[in-house]
Amino acid sequence: GAVVSQHPSRVICKSGTSVKIECRSLDFQATTMFWYRQFPKQSLMLMATSNEGSKATYEQGVEKDKFLINHASLTLSTLTVTSAHPEDSSFYICSARGGARDTQYFGPGTRLTVL
Amino acid sequence: GDSVTQMEGPVTLSEEAFLTINCTYTATGYPSLFWYVQYPGEGLQLLLKATKADDKGSNKGFEATYRKETTSFHLEKGSVQVSDSAVYFCALSDQSGNQFYFGTGTSLTVIP
After folding, report:
1. Nearest CB to B43: which of A34, A97, A107?
2. Which residue among A44, A60, A88, B80 is least crowded, i.e. fewest CB within 10 A of its CB?
3. CA gap A10, A92 in Å, rounded
C-alpha cells in the first residue's frame, strides 16, 4: 500500500534555531502534500497545502514566513520551522495525496520540542 | 462549511465490552467518511472508510456505516481488547479529496 514517511520522528532544538522536517511518499507520486499540526489532546489542524513546483497555500492564521514549505518533487515536501520558539512545540503530520486510490495517506508525524 | 462532530471522551471500557463512538457530520455534496486511529506517540492510521451512502467500512473488527439520512458515521466494535486503547478520529473529505476535516478525537482506554 501507499506509504508516507517523515524524518525526523523526533527533534529537540534550542529556541531561535530552524528545523527542517521531510515528508516523502515512498511508493507513489503525490500530486499534493498537506501539512498538519496537532496540539496535545487536540485534533489535527491543516496548516498548508502544497503542489509540486508551486507555492504552498496556507490556511488562515498560519505564518508563511515562519513555516516554509518546499515541494521540490512529486515524492518530497519539506516544512522548515524558522526561528523556532517554545510555542512551536507540537506534533507535525504530513499527508500525501496520490496512489491508486487517489486519497490522502498520512505520515507517522514528527514531534518537535523547542527548549 | 463542512465539519465533523465527534463524541467526547475519554471512554474507558472493560475488555470484551461493546464500543460505540458517535460521529456526525455537516457537509455539502457527497463527502467521503473516515475513521483514523492514533496510538500513543504515533501518527494517524486509517482504520476504515466509506465513500458513499449506505457503505459500510470495516477493519480489525471495527465497523461504521455511512448514514446520509442521519448524517452519521458511528464507529462500533463488538468486543474491545486492551490493544484497542488509542485515540480515534472521525474525519470527512470533500469531493475533491483535498480538504480533510477532523473531529476532536475520542480517547479510548480498555482495561483488562
Report:
1. A107
2. A60
3. 10
Q: Quote the CA–CA distance of B62 and B98 in Å, as a whole number.
A: 26
pLDDT tens digits for B20-35?
Answer: 999 999 998 889 999 9
The answer to whether B105 contacts chain A (CB < 8 Å) is yes
How confident is the model at residue A49, as a pLDDT?
A: 92
Q: Decide: helix, strand or coil at residue A87.
A: helix
Interface size, chain A vs chain B, as Cβ–Cβ contacts under 8 Å: 46
C-alpha grid cell, residue A42? 487536540
Q: Which of A97, A107, A111 sits opposite B98 (nearest CB)?
A: A97
d(CA A19, CA B107): 30
Q: Do A109 and B42 touch (CB under 8 A)?
A: yes
Average pLDDT rounded to a whole number, residues A90-100:
87
